[in-house]
Amino acid sequence: MLYPGGKTGAAARHLLTRFLGCALIGAAAIAAAQTPAYPQRTWIEPYPETVVASDQSPAAPTDEASVIVSDDATWTADPPVEYCDDDVWNWRILPSGLAYRAYLAGPRESRLSSFWAHEKDQGWLWDVALGGRAALLRYGTQNGIRPQGWELQIEGGGLPRLGMEEESDVQAVDFRVGVPLVYAVDNYQFKLAYYHLSSHVGDEFLIKNPGFERINYVRDAIVLGTGYYLTPELRAYGEAAYAFNVDGGAEPWEFQFGMERAPAIPTGFRGAPFAAVNAHLREEFRFSGNLVVQAGWAWRGDGAGHLLRTGFEYFNGRDEQYSFLREHQQKMGLGLWYDF
User: Fold this and answer.
1) CA–CA dist 63, 21 (Å, integer)
2) Burial of 313 (0-12, 13-18, 19+ CB in 10 A)
3) Do residues 133 and 162 make contact, with C-beta atoms less than 8 angstroms apart?
4) DSSP labels for 163-201?
5) Residues of the chain with CATH 2.40.160.40
6) Rounded Cα gap, residues 170 and 155, in angstroms
């Protein structure tokens, strides 16, 4: 028989069971000691690109590349690439910059400006613009200087003129407000806009000129415009506007086109030259109008790309104060313009 019977057999079976149990535990411990543990790795870079066998001598990285070492292999990876949100199209509320900027030499653009000029018949005049343009909503990039994408803007301002030889009286003021919807991609720009413009003669001017016939010039217009950057600094543009509500001698159609060069990147304190030319043609003058030429020095800011300019302007054509729309002007002078 395999196991003896009786008390002696029971004791023998008990000793044999304990011996086999200890032998199994000991064998498992030895096997565990001889089996290499699973490599423990500290992952510094989640996307290794190359694997070098442990029997080779990997070259030391020349930059701050991440290195991962284990018992049997070495991983090397390139440095992490910096993520830039400026180039990602996304919804943005009140974004910085403008996808379609005001024309530099446009005589009726919403901006901050001051222009001191001498007119051949009226003497010294002071034309001022107190306004601006801002982006409300954009689906596009965050680049403040030349963002891409769809953008809803708002623009508006008051455009008064003071007679410097008439005790600086306010001769007239135009008020403008508009809502442009624009789209910019690569070097192309497109604009669909609405604007309202109305003209008002100054009280002092009416008192000193009792025979002046006041007009109520009004335009409510829809605008289609486009622009193209031939270089990062040089833009050509054109637009057509149709006024569905007119008064005071205004006619529906007007056209505007021109070309401008300005610094495309932040300039610092040094600045850079700028130049611009703009033609504005109106139906009420059988599609004649005025011509504006500007040249001078400009400074482009960081972030939103605000542009400050100072320089010379020459104006020739129909008066841009629409209360005097029948008058012809030829003037030149010095200006200071700020677009934000």
Assistant:
1) 57
2) buried
3) no
4) ETTTTTEEEEEEEEEEEEEEEEETTEEEEEEEEEEEEEE
5) 89-339
6) 23
- Write out the two tokens for 265: 């990147």
Question: What pLDDT is attached to residue 167?
Answer: 86
Q: Which pLDDT score is estimated for 44?
A: 40
pLDDT for 27? 45
- Looking at residue 8, its pLDDT comes to 42
Residue 216: strand, helix, or coil: coil
Angle at 264 between CA 263 and CA 265, to 5 degrees: 100
Return the pLDDT at 156: 97
Structure tokens at 87: 């180039």
Pairing of strands 123-140, 90-93: antiparallel
For residue 79, give both structure tokens: 């440095």
Sign of torsion over alpha carbons 13, 16, 18, 24: negative
Q: Is 85 strand, coil or helix?
A: helix
Q: Is the pTM higher than 0.70?
A: yes
What H or E segment, with its residue span, contains residue 51?
strand 50-53
> How is domain 89-339 classified at the CATH fold level?
Porin (2.40.160)
Tracing tokens 């500290």 back to the chain, one arrives at 42
Segment-wise mean pLDDT, segments of 10 residues, the chain, 340 residues: 44 47 49 43 42 47 46 47 69 96 96 96 95 97 93 98 91 97 98 97 92 93 98 98 96 98 96 98 95 98 94 96 93 97
In one letter, which amino acid is 109?
A: E
Q: Which residues contact 74 (CB under 8 A, 6 or more apart)?
A: 51, 52, 54, 58, 67, 68
CB 58 within 8 A of CB 95: no
Please state, in angstroms and rounded to a whole number, the distance separating the CA atoms of residues 137 and 134.
10
How far apart are alpha carbons 313 and 337 in whole angstroms? 11
Specify the pLDDT at position 81.
Answer: 45
